[in-house]
Design a protein that fits this description.
mainly alpha, V-type ATP synthase subunit C fold, globular
Length: 349
Amino acid sequence: MKSSENATIAKARSIYGKRLKYNDYTELASRKKVTDAAEYLKKNTYFSDALSNIDTSTIHRGFLESVLNKAYYDGYEKLCKFQHLDRQPFFNFLLVRQEIRELLKALLYLNNDSNDVYIESMHTYMIEKSGIDLMALAKAEDFKAVLKVIRHTPYYDVLKNVKPDSSGNIPYTKCEVLLRTYYLKWLLENAEKCAHGKSKKALIDQINVQTDIINIINAYRMKKYFNADAETLEKYMLPFYGRLSKEKQSALFQTQSSEEYLRMLSHTSYGRKMEQLSEDMESDQFERELVKIRYAMAKRALMFSEDAAVSLYSLMYLQEVELNNITNIIEGIRYNKSVSYMENLIVLQ
């Protein structure tokens, strides 16, 4: 362990210690209005600082989620700057991912002729942080204009050969695979440079598991809802292989149904770790079971790692899961879902 990183590692563990607990989630889920949930977060959780100057009695769902997302990013930025870790490329991992998410969101809304909706959904805190001119991106009226906006970013070379169809529709899934592939290659390359020895192995293992899980989830969805064949799945999956070898992944893709897919998955390291794995499970439940595996891995890494890169990468994933838990509860309150329904959506800490 670099002695200069000790403080960051300790700080990351301390931040995780302030996470929402089970009783916090049940308290949130029992609230009848979004404003009541916001007030609970303000008075009883570490989000109190982020909400301190906000009138929670009038806050609406979209703005609350925006405040929580900004708090998440601000926490990441503070940790990176705390001991000047942001001078190393790897520690831009969340910034790069957020830029890609904004770009993909803009492409999706552009396909639906909904640029105005993109502006409303944009994370405004990213405007000053992103290397992409997000306001110019929001005004782009076609893919050619998008390429012009991103001309001086790394994403231009990733997307420059993509061709819209005769109606101008952008092949969104192709763009998503290309950008995600770029991100994961960038992540792995910088992880190799940033960490060393056991720490490097722990960091790269997390990234590999992250990639495996993305492919497992996406393949299951396509198999269950579109009966996709192996050739189609190979086309849309990320070209990486972690604990799930290329051979095992190929065998999963060649299954003839989602039920057979789950049966075969049950014999892999991922299937054996899933607490619940039934042939009739819905995709959201399936996804939560896999998230639990990665969550446990990240939690273990944060508790025992002696490397700042591993600690920070782990913490940001753990906090992302927490943010998703809160968002799911807020959505549940908005649509008058039962407490038990919302509790089933939570990945417990």
